[in-house]
Design brief:
This protein has 4 helices and no strands. By secondary structure, the chain is an all-alpha fold. The protein has one domain.
Length: about 90
């Protein structure tokens, strides 16, 4: 048990895992805790509820949604989900 507290040797699998986890955290962090007003959160919720590709493409084609809004909503949701799952495996 105490072994997990010792620093990883450079080049060891432990140091590679730590480096990958740090890289993942830095990639996900900008999408978390972004200051968003109620309208932006409502837009995210609306986008994430769409389960019909025809509806989504129609909203995109009519200009009611932009590709940036859709992708950003999904990235934020994925980042939030990733953070929640990661907390389950921290020890």
């Amino acid at each position: 048990m105490g072994d997990s507290l010792r620093p990883a040797k450079p080049g060891s699998w432990e140091s590679i895992v730590k480096e990958k986890r740090d890289l993942r955290t830095r990639a996900v962090k900008p999408h978390l805790n972004v200051a968003r007003d109620d309208n932006a959160r409502a837009l995210d919720a609306t986008i994430l509820k769409i389960d019909d590709i025809s509806e989504l493409t129609g909203l995109l084609m009519n200009g009611k949604l932009s590709a940036h809004e859709v992708v950003s909503s999904y990235i934020r949701r994925a980042a939030e989900s990733h953070e929640q799952v990661s907390k389950c495996f921290q020890y």
